[in-house]
Write a structure and sequence with these properties.
Length: 341
């Protein structure tokens, strides 16, 4: 076994459909990477219920300090004041500065509005209005701080260019609203132009986020790698995942200097929880990203190929099922079995 294969990863089962899709994914992982050690951690509703307002038990931090690679199912954020988002807390505490979201059309095996689409969104993950720094100024005026730093811009933009090189991509597009937010987005765009000059082998362009997002919905094949500040990246990656085929297929890698977290793009889907009908593909592809991050290319390739073959065979979960491309409609557990077969 390689070092990667014997690594211990932290595993959070999540809320809603979280436990079902995690069980399915771990079932596949146990077949392909049997020496990978799994350390369960508690976060989500159970932690909120026991009075931890950030949704994470204190002992979870100790485990993450020792095993800073986390495979995480979606969590339900309780409504109402006082509760903090687990994801925002994890990203800031573990310094997960890059959020990498591939959005790929699997046409003709999965219906897509845009066959041939293959876009990777690299979203800045710690700064911007998403930091949740909000103030009440008066009873009628509230304020949210949009924080953008030069080191933060440099780190994410360089990550996007290095990612493009490593994955043999041809172009990096920066999206911002620097025509209006001249200082904050202006800095992001300026840093992009500076760093782009160091990568003459890659095409570089800038688009204003509003028309850029419209183009992503209508003509996504114009894009390859996209780098953008936090909030725009959040919205743009959901659009891109949905027009590629289904948000249920999209994975998300959160990469930091000292740790990494891998999850599906979608949420905890309480409307279909406990019914064995959720699609585990987003989390399964996140586990592929995780294995690549750990350096276990063989296991990552094995899972990715088996998953593609399962889709090609027309074995689909309910969200992807249609009479033209599907042969059988499988439950969450049965889909995982088909991938293993
Ligand atoms: P959602 O992504 O959970 O669900 C949106 C729709 O997509 C629902 O109809 C759902 O049934 C469907 N869907 C989602 N994933 C699916 C899958 N794997 N297979 C089949 N269908 C799937 O979004 P929401 O309803 O806005 O949010 C529900 C909860 O999830 C909220 O509490 C939200 O805060 C939380 N959330 C968590 C994360 C995370 O932990 N990373 C991300 C987004 C939302």
């Amino acid at each position: 076994a390689t070092d990667a294969a014997t690594r211990t990863i932290a595993v959070a089962h999540g809320d809603g459909i979280g436990p079902e899709i995690m069980d399915a994914v771990l079932h596949v992982l146990r077949h392909v990477a049997p020496n990978l050690q799994l350390q369960p951690v508690t976060m989500g509703e159970a932690a909120y219920r026991s009075g931890h307002m950030n949704g994470i038990l204190p002992q979870t931090w100790d485990i993450l300090a020792e095993h800073p690679v986390l495979l995480k199912s979606p969590m339900t954020t309780p409504q109402g004041g006082g509760y903090k988002s687990i994801n925002v807390t994890l990203r800031k505490t573990l310094g997960l500065f890059a959020n990498v979201r591939p959005c790929v059309a699997y046409h003709p095996y999965v219906d897509s509005l845009h066959p041939g689409m293959d876009v990777v969104i690299v979203r800045e993950n710690e700064e911007d209005t998403y930091g949740g720094i909000e103030h009440r100024q008066t009873d009628e005026v509230v304020q949210c701080l949009k924080l953008i730093t030069r080191p933060g811009c440099e780190r994410i933009v360089r990550y996007a260019f290095e990612y493009a090189l490593a994955h043999r991509r041809r172009k990096v597009t920066c999206m911002s609203k620097d025509n209006i937010m001249k200082m904050t987005d202006g800095l992001f765009h300026r840093v992009f132009d500076e760093i782009a000059a160091e990568y003459p082998q890659l095409e570089a362009e800038h688009r204003i986020i509003d028309i850029g997002a419209a183009r992503m919905a209508a003509r996504p094949r114009e894009f390859d790698v996209v780098v953008t500040p936090n909030l725009y990246g959040d919205i743009l990656s959901d659009i891109a995942a949905e027009v590629a085929g289904s948000i249920g297929l999209a994975p998300s890698a959160n990469i930091g200097l000292h740790g990494a977290m891998f999850e599906a793009v979608h949420g905890s889907a309480p409307d279909i929880a406990g019914k064995n009908i959720a699609n585990p593909s987003g989390l399964l592809l996140a586990s592929v990203q995780m294995l690549l991050h750990l350096g276990d290319t063989a296991a990552a390739t094995a899972i990715h190929n088996a998953w593609l073959r399962t889709l090609e065979d027309g074995l689909h979960t309910r969200d992807l099922f249609n009479e033209r491309t599907s042969r059988r409609c499988l439950g969450t557990r049965e889909f995982a079995h088909a991938v293993i077969e």
